[in-house]
Amino acid sequence: MNRSSPRTRMATHEVLNQPAPRGDRDLLAGDLPLREALAREAPPWVAERLAPLGRETGSTRVAALGEEANRHPPELHLFDRHGRRLDEVHYHPAYHELMTMAMAGGWHAVAWQEEGRGGHQAHIAALYLLTQAEPGFCCPVTMTHAAMPVLRHSPDVEAAWAPGLLANAYDPRPLPAAQKRGLTFGMAMTEKQGGSDVRSNSTRAEPDGEGWRLTGHKWFCSAPMSDAFLTLAQTNDGLSCFLVPRFTPDGERNAIELQRLKEKCGNRANASAEIEYRGAWATPLGDPGRGVATIIDMVQQTRLDAATAPVGMMRLALTEAWHHTRQRHAFGKVLAEQPLMRSVLADLALEVEAGIALAMRTAHAFDGVARGDDRQTALARLLPSLAKYWHNKRGPGFMAEAMECLGGIGYVEETPLARLYREAPVNSIWEGSGNVMCLDVLRVLARHPESIEALRAELAAARGQQPDFDLALAGLERDLALPTGALEARARWLAQRLAQCLQASLLLRHAPNEVAETFCRSRLGVEASPAYGVIPADATLATILARIGD
User: Fold this and answer.
1) Which of 328, 372, 442, 445 has the fewest CB atoms within 10 Å around its CB?
2) C-beta separation of 430 from 306 below 8 A
3) Hey, is 448 helix, strand or coil?
């Protein structure tokens, strides 16, 4: 043993039967389902560019940064010592190091730098890896990425702001945009009285020379140190979209006043503020009165990220459980070799495989939109809401199950699992709760028949390969034939079944038979259970477990 290792001989006992500390890992090389999805859904350059990130996010150095950023939450500084208004949030140095890792690597911009050529697949795979380092800091990375489609609604605004967004640089200094190496973007839509019902917003915008002045409040504004915010405000033409910069065109601090930071259940490394616009200068984006239609382009992007983050968190929780149970003995046998534990671990592994497959398939559809592919465009309207809904419904229970694999040590803050458990609900709430996602699925099905046909084709590609899957497809067709009014009460079931069948279709076509067969029987068969670890007794688990990796 290394002389500098922690002592194992205590005055009263010797420390035995505890797993060795985790060392540096490669989160890409050790993740076979991700590598297979990249080979299937993305051009070769994506995996090549991701390789250094896989090593960096798996390092003990970055793991420590994630812990530090979460342990030391952001601090609000409203005034300087002389009483002058600052409206600044100060972050721990670990947060800034994580942001530098993401943005210097260009993972916030790669979807647009390589648009139609695998950029979305690169962004989503990178987000999946970055989330395993620390989920909270990924919020500003996501919003900066997602701002680009909205900027494009106004060519003058795009010309002024897109170069800073596309820069592979992180510059946290509170300076006007023109003086910075790279820019970050935020979004502020919801208000106290409306939440997801943004059409009830009361913030007003009035014209003022070449710009507009906004007066009102926003109830949730994450990443409040962003260089610009996309927001909604009422005008005489109706609810409209605006860009609100941190600094006005003349270089003064804009009248965006931070009221307080939210004390959140999780997501602690990321600041979320309540803000007020006190005559804040803004410039319009898109057509007047078409604010929701304009900003929804950003929301679609963030929804895919919010569908991917829980899969990254589940992957980290799985590898923590796998590492522990392979080294821990109980009742005379290694935990990972005991039948019940093998069933739990295999079931968790199935969930991660299915999530990776659906997230990467959705990213492929997003990339197809840029190429003008009609089928991919039709799928891109529907898949983000399905994936966001279902992945986030599966996440919290997954984290709890992984905690149980470790026992009491999984419930303490020294492991990542407590942090993941607190983090798990956020992406279900962010960018539209579960009910909002289900209603959005119904909206797409009602308005876009081409999306239904593209979905049917995607599912039919695996028809005939597994009986439980075929029965589930027949049930879906019966549901899809119901009148829209009758579907609303069943919208959650419909969204769940569509997502599960999409996952099953992908696994049947691309995963080993043992993986696909066990997934279909445990999710779609007569013995399907909402609890993890309930899988067919005759399932072949060795192949599933071997694919977990490290």
Assistant:
1) 372
2) yes
3) coil
